[in-house]
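Methods — Computational structure assignment.
A single polypeptide chain was analysed. Its primary sequence is given first, followed by the predicted tertiary structure written as structure tokens.
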Amino acid sequence: MENVLFCWIFFTLGWTLTDGSEMEQDFMWHLRKIPRVVSERTFRLTSPTFKADTKMVLDRVCGIECQKELPAPSLSDLEDSLSYETVFENGTRTLTRVKVQDVLLEPTQNITTKGALVRRRRQVYGTDSRFSILDKRFLTNFPFNTAVKLSTGCSGILISPSHVLTAAHCVHDGNDYIKGSKKLRVGLLKMRNKGGGKKRRGSKRSRREANGGDKREGTKVNLERDKAGRRRRKESGRGQRVAEGKPSFQWTRVKNTHIPKGWARGGRGEAALDYDYALLELKRPHKKKYMELGISPTIKKLPGGMIHFSGFDRDRADQLVYRFCSVSDESNDLLYQYCDAESGSTGSGVYLRLKEPDKKNWKRKIIAVYSGHQWVDVHGVQKDYNVAVRITPLKYAQICLWIHGDNANCTYG
């Protein structure tokens, strides 16, 4: 049953459409020239207090009909929102002002960018459709190995050898950095075999002593016992691959954190849900395969209208939880869906698998960051959604700038 389940999951993860070249063309990553986000000037700010609560609280909501009537943001508004704070490991903080170049301003079609009430009930809709990934063959391989856990309780995703993308509210509540984020750490999932090396060596010495100190005799007895032990484990462990070891986290300190000013208002306006994303730079690079960023396509360009993400939901005791679902609605900056997700999964990277142009292979990329549950005013009626913040061309350019330190590598995305 387990093998059938995981084959079905990977069939879903690797699903492709082969109904003709025209449909295949629809589900491709299309490289495009992106706007330029250029650092203009950096200021030193006072150190934060790190006293904010860990839960996200936004106060009011603008629904679908009112948001569509809002004018497009001006260039100065965009530059203000895309300017960013950086907080360093020692607690110091800076603000970097940016200039935006080569951007085409379009009418906004957002459902909501500001304010919503946090739902305090379960974030599972009807039948729970989440899957706990337990088999180490899946946990330690792409794409599941890209999911990480934050010491603040959220999730994140590896997007370079040294960078993790997550939700901004996992480290900042819009006014101040949350408790515990001063010594922020990122946990990379690994498998711990039963019995460490030191334990085996100690056990071996004990067995030699029990056999009168005869090295050759002790070795012979040990080999026979090891063979018998392996045979018993093989017979009793069939169909239970997870028995080979238990998952654990390898924790790494965060060197610095970048948050867009659209979120980190510091009491000078409301945090905008459109900017609920942050980038963490690790103190030590990892050697795992990471997932690249991609610009979020419209719902019509999603294969089957589906999105996928994996995170560490708090109700499943450090298990990696995978889910997929269809997108119900979209705005310029947000995806609205009903993927089952409990607290702890916020900050997960939402990804797609599309075909690369002029190539036969398909590639997964991050197209959004899962933000959490929101109530939305739709024609005067409160509706609840699970919301993800889309990677737009401007956000792609900004995150690329954070990773590389300049915009030289951020021309196309």
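Note: The longest strand covers residues 362-378.
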